[in-house]
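hi! just following up on the protien thing from before. the input was this:
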Amino acid sequence: MSLLKPFSKLPGLNTANILLVENEEQFQQKLADTVVLQEKTVNVNVLARSLPLPMENEESRPRIDLVVFIIHLTSELSFQSAETSLKYLDPGYFQGKVCFLVTNARNVSVPPERLVSVRKLAASLHCPLLCAEDQTTEGVTTAAHRLLAILKVAAGLVPMATGLYLSTLTRCTVPSDIDQQNFE
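and the predicted 3d structure came back as:
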C-alpha cells in the first residue's frame, strides 16, 4: 500500500476524477450518482470507495483530482475511519485537493463534541468542511453541486483558479474559544 500522490499522473482532457471515501457507503452511492448526473460539460468519474487503494491497476488508474471524506456524525466509526484513511494521502493533497463532508450535523442525538472534532481536523489540515443533508433528494443534489464546484477548480478546469487558492478561501477555521463551549 503506497501513498496516493496528487501529481503522479497527467490530467485527462475535460475530465475530473473524484474519490469519495466513506465507511458505511450509505450516502456515497446516492452522492456519486447525483454528481455524475449533474455535470454535462465535463466528464466526471467517481472512483473507489475507501483508502488505501489496491496496488493492482495502479498504472491504469486515472489521476484523482479531489478526495472527499464523508463523515456521518451519528457514527463514531465514520470519523475514526476518515482519520485512519488520511495517512494514505501524500501531503500534496492537502493543498486544495481534499475536503470533508459531514452529514447529520443538525441531528439532536449527535454529541456536539463530534462536530467540534471534525472541525478541528479540517482546520488542522486547512481543508474545507461542507455540511450536507443526506435524507432528502434536495440535500444530496445541493451537496453534489458544491462538490462539483470544488472538483472543477481542483481539476484545473476553471481558469484563473487553483485548488490551493480555493482552499485558502473556504478552509475550515476553529475559533480559539471552541473548547469552552458556552451555550447560555
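The chain has a mean pLDDT of 81.
The longest helix spans residues 137-154.
cheers
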